[in-house]
Amino acid sequence: MTASLDISNSRPHRAKSFAQTQQTPFSFRLFQPVIGRDLKPSYREYRALISGLSQGDQIMDDFVEWMFSNSPKVGKQQFDQALHQGIHTVKDCPESLKRLFKHVEHTPEWFDQTLIDDALAFIHGTGTYANHVLRDAALMGGYLLSGFNQALVMTGALNKGASKRVGETYKWWIDCTEPQGLQRFGVGFKSTLHVRFIHALVRRNLAKSEKWDSDEWGLPICQVDMAATNLAFSVVFLSGLRALGIFATPHESKAVMHLWRYVGWLMGVDEQWLLASERESIALLYHTTLTQSAPDWTSQELGKALSIEPLSRHYANLESVRRLYAYHKHLSVSRYFLGQKKMQQLGLPKQTLPWFPLITAPINVVSYTAQRLVPTIHSALQQRGRQAQLDMLAQFGEHGHGTIQPDKHHPAHV
Questions:
Q1: How far is it, in rounded angstroms, from Cα 241 to Cα 127?
Q2: Does 42 map to a domain?
Q3: Residue 166 has pLDDT above 50, yes or no
Q4: Within a 13 Å sphere around the CA of 375, how many CA atoms are in the beta-carbon half?
Q5: Is 206 left (phi over 0), alpha (psi -120 to 50) or beta?
Q6: CA 126/CA 130 separation, integer angstroms
Q7: Number of domains in the chain
Q8: What is the pLDDT at residue 157?
């Protein structure tokens, strides 16, 4: 009882108490046979979650602290040089930077390149449906978790528009899903380490800001929030595709989970949150939602901003018509995944109908299943799907050309 009281007193207010986490809806109990366990967290799991709300990325955070105790500008130059040219090229290299790159350049024992390649083949074959799931279900649905929103708002996610954030995130995802992209000097490896560096800068500067309420929110970009974000690219991705009629085989599920397990490791997510199986990860994803606040004004503002993002996209022809079509299509997908009540909580039109998924999901069930049976057709599907994913970058204009580049008003600006 004493331990329970201690942890309740130390938890950020956004997280539910342990007693509250044990009160799961009846409908959730139906998932127990599917995932092979009770969805409720054990007390040990709960303690880990609460601790994770105050934990950052120690090895990157140490380097950033060294930067600010010496010369931030020089430190950033050294990091960029090590990232793009190798740690051996950095003259008078600080020990904290050496430790960081020694860690990320030493591939974990469980890494399997064959699984990575198989994951890429599956992801490429999903074409733009990958974007629908990640944008309209994972990202839009994530805005309902308002504890997660605070760091986004303070980094300018509202006043700079959703197009910039979506475009930069999509470019990072493209980099991570490039063939050989996660090799040491591949675009995905370098993009991920760049984003990890930005996260550490944001974490340091927001935590020191008088605007940041650590009693309410914990640490900015904490381990639990990073783990939840990583799970969106794996667990939510696979579940969302099934709802759109695209079913991963057990091997493809394992491969996709492995890909994002490695990306999460590169991003600085602690290994205790990097689970190998989809079933285990479903429970973890649910557990992370128990550390989040209810929807609030940030949910509506971020939701509205994301909803109108398609109206600023770039098209080679019929731009006005295609922008409007994209706007209504993405809303229909969000409605399909989130339902009417959550659409309303996000400030989105609750009368929206899920017309696009209802039309395409039955077609996908037949077409994707049939294409698997013919290797040449399946290979062509993967090539066309990947090209469609790459073509989407042009729709974001300049925002689709690179990952986060903080301006002088951004907490990560150096």
A1: 11
A2: no
A3: yes
A4: 0
A5: alpha
A6: 6
A7: 1
A8: 66
